[in-house]
Write a structure and sequence with these properties.
This protein is of the alpha+beta class. The protein has eleven helices and 16 strands. A five-stranded mixed sheet has the order 3-2-6-5-4. Bound molecules: pyridoxal-5'-phosphate.
Length: 394
């Protein structure tokens, strides 16, 4: 073996080349694929003139989502952030409350909390799943939380802790069952951020379908896209009714009268976006098969590395492998950045994890637990090119 004379970055590029070939042009991190009925359904939608907030594709897309995820109800909305915003409100999050969110997440998770006038309260992740750590959270809450008749109070800030938002990082299911146990003991509603995990299951059940309410995103970089889009998932008929009502300007049903019964939002997913979504849903299982095969290829090549580890799906879970990821065995921001810079220069679009949310200027004064694992993950995660088109399974 010549590994001792080669530096870690050389080996990394060689291995990427083995998996993906030598790039003719830069290989994006994640590219959408429109190889099915996208053009046909979009044309049908334009021909129908129903391109906006009323139309059959939006209804059909919701049915496809319920059939696929097993959730009883799906409400399609303009994006994942809007879905989280409404879901948090329906879970009872109010002005001045705190909401427990992972420090390691996309900024939308915390922004949706802020849109409710509430305060994100950042907690730590598990090394393995990269999702919220239920045991660390339990220990933390036993120190800072007090269960009162108004719910759980943060004894340090005096504010109510109103909900927990677990997130399934890069499509790998977090330990949702343990989190639900804890949430139930403390009387806290769970709003599941499944924005990245369409197609991922935990013990056979689809993510986003465990908590009181869950959300999906169909942004351009997600596993399927509607351009921009999102959905609220729930098994609760009353929550589904309210979600639909609040995202469609709270208009009272009537053949011609235009009356609204509360302050609400114009968050309905337009029919033209849903047309794209219906065509993409038809392709989802193919995308998943291709992404699994690509992940297996990464896994084979990266498995024996002593410098980094390929992130596999957690036990008992099936991940969509939305973004393939390696973790440096020795967390180090400068090694991470060096590998990412070299990979990008060689035409492989690699990315670090999000900067931890509690370090962003608008969230720097928010309450938080100690975050040793989130810090470690931030300094060690590298996302790898993951488009389904990188593999041609038929
Ligand atoms: C993509 C994403 C969202 C929602 O994003 P939108 O762009 O608003 O659809 C929320 N949370 C996480 C973790 C995400 O990755």
């Amino acid at each position: 073996m010549t590994t001792t004379v080669n530096s870690i970055d050389k080996i990394f590029i060689q291995e990427l080349e083995k998996i993906l070939g030598k790039p003719q042009s830069p290989i994006p991190l994640h590219e959408p694929e429109f190889s099915g009925n996208e053009w046909t359904l979009l044309k049908n939608c334009l021909d129908s003139t129903f391109v906006s907030s009323i139309g059959e594709y939006t209804n059909q897309f919701e049915v496809m989502l319920t059939e696929y995820t097993g959730a009883k109800y799906a409400v399609a909305v303009v994006n994942g952030t809007a879905a989280l915003h409404i879901s948090l409100m329906l879970a009872g999050v109010k002005l001045g409350d705190e909401v427990l969110v992972p420090a390691l997440s996309f900024v939308a998770t915390a922004n949706a909390v802020s849109h409710c006038g509430a305060i994100p309260h950042f907690v730590d992740s598990e090394l393995n799943t990269m999702g919220m750590d239920p045991w660390a959270l339990e220990e933390y809450l036993s120190k800072i939380g007090e269960v009162t008749s108004q719910g759980m109070i943060n004894i340090k800030t005096g504010r109510r802790i109103a909900a927990i938002v677990p997130m399934h990082t890069y499509g790998h299911p977090m330990n949702i069952e343990s989190l639900l146990n804890l949430a139930e003991r403390y009387g806290l509603p769970v709003v599941e951020d499944a924005a990245e995990s369409l197609g991922s299951t935990y013990q056979g059940r689809h993510t986003g379908n465990f908590g009181l309410i869950g959300i999906l995103s169909f942004n351009g970089n997600k596993i399927i896209t509607t351009g921009g889009g999102g959905a609220i998932l729930t098994n609760n008929a009353e929550l589904a009714r309210q979600a639909k009502h609040l995202t469609t300007t709270a208009k009272k049903p009537h053949p011609w009268e235009i009356l609204h019964d509360s302050v609400a939002w114009n968050y309905r997913l337009p029919n033209i976006n849903a047309a794209l979504g219906c065509a993409q849903m038809e392709r989802l299982s193919l995308f998943l098969a291709k992404k699994r095969e690509l992940a297996a290829r990464y896994q084979r090549i990266f498995a024996n590395g002593d410098q980094y580890t390929f992130v596999n799906e957690p036990q008992g879970c099936c991940s969509n492998y939305w973004l393939n990821t390696i973790r440096l065995n020795k967390p180090d921001i400068s090694t991470r950045d060096d590998l990412i810079a070299k990979a990008n220069a060689a035409g492989y679009q690699c990315r670090p994890a999000w900067g931890l949310l509690h370090k962003l200027p608008m969230y720097k004064d928010c309450p938080r637990s100690s975050l040793p694992i989130a810090e470690r993950l931030e300094a060690s995660l590298i996302n790898l090119p993951s488009s389904p088109k990188l593999l041609s399974v038929t």
